[in-house]
Structure formats: C-alpha cells, structure tokens
Hints:
Number of helices: 21
Number of strands: 0
CATH class: Mainly Alpha
Shape: globular
Largest sheet: none
CATH architecture: Up-down Bundle
Number of domains: 1
CATH topology: Amino acid/polyamine transporter I
Helix content: 55-70%
Distance between the termini: 38 Å
Strand content: under 5%
Structural class: mainly alpha
CATH superfamily: Amino acid/polyamine transporter I
Amino acid sequence: MDNKKKTAGLSIFALAMLITGAIDSIRNLPATAFFGSSLIFFFLFSAVVFLIPVALVSAELSSQFTEKGGIFHWIRLGMGEKMAFLAIWLQWINTMVWFPTILSFFVGTATYFINPALVQNKLYLISIILSTFWLLTWLNLKGLHFSAKFSSFCAIAGMIIPMALIIVLAVIWMVLGKPLQIHFTIGEMVPSLKHVENWVSLTAIMTAFLGMELATVHVTGVSNPQKAFPKALLFSVLIILVTMIFGSLAIAMVLPHDQINLVNGVMQAFTHFFAIYHLDWLVPVVTVMLLLGTLGSTVSWVISPAKGLLHAAQLGYLPRYFTKENEQGVAFRILIAQAVLVSFVCLAFLLMPSVNGSYWLLTALSTQLYVLMYVLMFLAAICLKYKFGTHPKAFAISGGKAGMWLACLVGLVGCGITLFVGFIPPAGIDVGGFMHYEVVFTSALIGMISPVLLFYLYRAQFSVRQTWTLSLETATGLDKSPVNLSS
C-alpha cells in the first residue's frame, strides 16, 4: 500500500515539469536567436531526430535498471567498462567546458549593474569567471551545499518567470505593430537545406536539448508509466519547444542580427523592451532574477561531475591520490584539479578575436563532447535490447526490438548531423577565419578526449599490479581470504 501511494505521488504533470526543468534554459536563447526565424524549423527537426529519441531510450533504460542506473551502468552492461569510462569522461569533460559559458552568462548579466560594455573586455570576463568558480569550489570544499528548495526557487525565479516575461513582452510588441528585425516568410522559416552553413544553428539548438537522460530516471515514479510517460514526454516537449522557440524569437525580433551578443543577449532584449515600454525600473529586478537562476543551475554542478570521476578513480582509472576525501567527505583533490582545468578552458576567450567567437567555440565544443556520449548510449541501448530484452521494465518503447532500432537509428542520425556541422563556424560571428576556427576547435576536441587513452594504460598497469600483488600474497600465505579479481 505504501509503495503504491509513493508511486502514485508523481503525477504526469510533475514528471513533465521535471523533464522540462532539466532541459529548459533562458541562457541558450541568444545563441538560437542569432539564426532568426529559421530556428523554428530546426527546433522542430531537432526534437524529432534527437530530443524524443533520447527521451524514449533513456526512459526505457531507466525503468529497466532501477537499482543501479545511469550512463556508466548502461554502457558498461551493453559495451563494456572501457566504453563506459569513455562515456563518463565525455560527460565530465563536457561539464568543464560548459562552466565558462554559463558563468560568462552570469558575468554578462551582472555587468548590467555596472557597465554593459565591460563584457567585451576578455580579461575582465575571464577574471570574474575564475573568481566565481573558485569561490563555488571553495564552498563545496567546505561542504556548504545548497538545498533542493533553494535550487527550485532559483529555477522558478531565474528561468520560468523571466522566460514567460520575455515572451509576453514580445507578444505585446507584435500586437502594437512595432518593427521586427526578422521576417516570417516560408523562405525565411524553411531555409535551403542544400547549403551546409544553414545547418549550423543545430549546434546551438542541440545545446538547449542536452541532459534529457538525467530527468528520465523519474519514469518509475509514476503509476502506469507505459501510458503516463509518453503523455509526460509530449507535454514536456511541447513546453520546451514553445518556450525556447518563442523566447529565441523574442530576442531576434527586437535586436538586429549583428548586434546580438551571445553572452548578454537576454539582458539586451529585456533592456530594449523596458526602454520602449517605459519600464526601466524593472532592469535591476530582472537582472537579480537571472543571476539567481544562473547560480541555482551552476552551484550543484560544481560537485556533481566530481562524483563520477571519483567513481572512475576508485575503479583504478585514476591514481588513488584523487580518491582522498576531506573531513566533509568531499573528494577535494578532484575538485581542485577540476577548478584548475576550468581555469585553462577559460583561456579559450583569448584564442578567438571576439567574445561571441569564444562563446560559440566553447558551446560547440561542449555540444560535440556530449553528443559523442549519446552515440555511445544509443549503441549500448541496442546491445542491451538483445542481452536483456526479456528483463521486466516499467516502460518500453513500442515495437520491441524494431522500435528500439528505429529510435536509436533516428537518434544516431541526429547525432551524426550535429557532429558534422559542429566543425563549421557560423556566419556573422568573428572566429578569426575558417582555418583558425578549425585548428583551434579540432585541437581542443582532441585534447579533451585523448587523456582517456592514458587512463586506459594506467588502468591496465593497475590491473597488472593488483594481480601480481594478489598472486604474491597467495603464494606467501599472507592472504587467507578468497581471491576475487573481478573487483
């Protein structure tokens, strides 16, 4: 009886809100607004070839492996421990690249209290980003974690309300017949798909869709998930698409294409709206709300990725040095190493001639790393369908193996297109030329992934040392307990 009550406690609406909260973000609006009315087509396209397949596949895996789930466990069961470590590394290193982008949005928003032009000063931007991140790291080292209630408050005040407000302001703008910076013609909304450069917007849009697998773990928390989850998924996808599309269009409608700043474009749009509507007093109010939203979405992520890396260290992929915990039970050496790496990643702002170019580079790099992880997830899901096809699960994709194949193949197509267009710099953003972008982007991508090979070698040596130690102890009679090499 208690279990039934607990299961029935999560409604379809609540599940839809959990999924929406994990994906929706006002920070991504300037990057997608940059592509004008064509973003409508690419948002819908991305939902079909990426968002929905990821949701369906991760929901089935979450409901099938309830006791021990997540990307690492799914891929380890489907493709082995090495591929699982690669996946968890991609998820972790992606977060290291993501931090400078979310914190640059934080700095760009806060700068409106001082001088909006400061955001174009790279040294100022980097110094504030690093100061903020090291402060958050120090707080986590002290074991000072923010409560779930505080995070929920930040999500409502800093994401939901500002997102709704900017959409309402845009609707009023259109009703009043104000001039628009974009056009809603068929030619503008459905661009020629023959030109590769028109597909570049997928990078920004896919970034807005990353993280769906983190929310689907709640699929087992609803009654009759086979029927409830598709409904919750439909509601959440509609909410995400409506808010992201209309929020992006709100910025694109009032700001000229060449004036959209990827770092503080949201505040640009709000300031423009408030100036026209004579509501300038709301600028500091919205600024504080956005700062709260950014803080709430960032603070918990400082320590969360470190937990995955700690697990890898405990498995022998990293030296035992990194498993050391302080008095608060925090793997402080991993957090320090993480902060050092983020500091180096911030140097990307010096590699591009413009702040927009640097922001785009980090966004594209973060997207590539995360999408590679999804490729592994889709491949593992197919393997798991054959290995554990008869395993009981609360939710399963309709059509059995054929349904899983279809969802995974569609998802892989979406991932493939995104990986390809990620190497193409967008027109209108100063990245120092095509070759400069390619060299920096490719070098950074290789530099982020290649350490995995070193960790594989270390793990192999670790296994050899462990085997020799156990053999020696057994031979000399020092070890009286059964030998278990599988651990």
